[in-house]
Amino acid sequence: SGFWSKDEILLGAYAGGHMGLYILGSLVAFMTAFYMFRLIFVAFFGSNTGGEAAHESPHVMTVPLIILAVISVFAGFVGSPLMGNIFGHYVTAAGAAEHEPSAAIMVVSSIIAIAGIFLAWLIYQRKAVDYEALKTKYIGIWTLLYNKYYIDEFYTWLIAHFVDGIAKVFFWFDLYVINGLVNGLAYITGRSGLQLRYTENGQVQTYALYMLAGVVIILITAICAVFTALA
Fold this sequence. Notes:
The chain has 231 residues and is mainly alpha-helical. It has three domains: 2-47 and 56-146, no CATH class; 148-200; 201-231. It has helices spanning 2-15, 19-44, 59-75, 88-91, 103-125, 131-137, 139-146, 151-196, 204-230.
């Protein structure tokens, strides 16, 4: 499936006149073939460096992979010069196509992929190239690639310093401002209730005293208002 999708990308770049993108895509195709077969040669044809013997996966894992692999191989021929676009009449309306599949592009991309496979075989299976010497000679490049361009370290630093710092600010705001407002209102309400409960003691004379005090306050307010109006 990667072969067919890769060819569609390369064909689109070539047909659109973007030679820079086509060359870059071809280089990526070469590198992909190289590191994938490096993995195959090291994992399946190299010496066992682990403590346990390798064993095959159960059928519940291998059978679906085989089915998908077969489908991806043969389904890719649909739309190619060998089979033509047999699904085109069903999935698209009538119109002009921008470009047709190119056998030349497929051949060139296949040669590029084979070159990557051959280089991986030459280095990791045939041992014709001393990659340990290359690693020593280009230790700076090797270190950069080995550490994956330090993306993990940058991500860790970003999380540990920048994002974590912002999270701490929001945590402080939530803890002392938001919770402070909520808990403060609850405290004020509780204390007010404790103070006001003394006014509800069930004694009639106390209620009469409150009523008398209210009447006195009203009279004083009314008298003050009258004198203010006369003045």
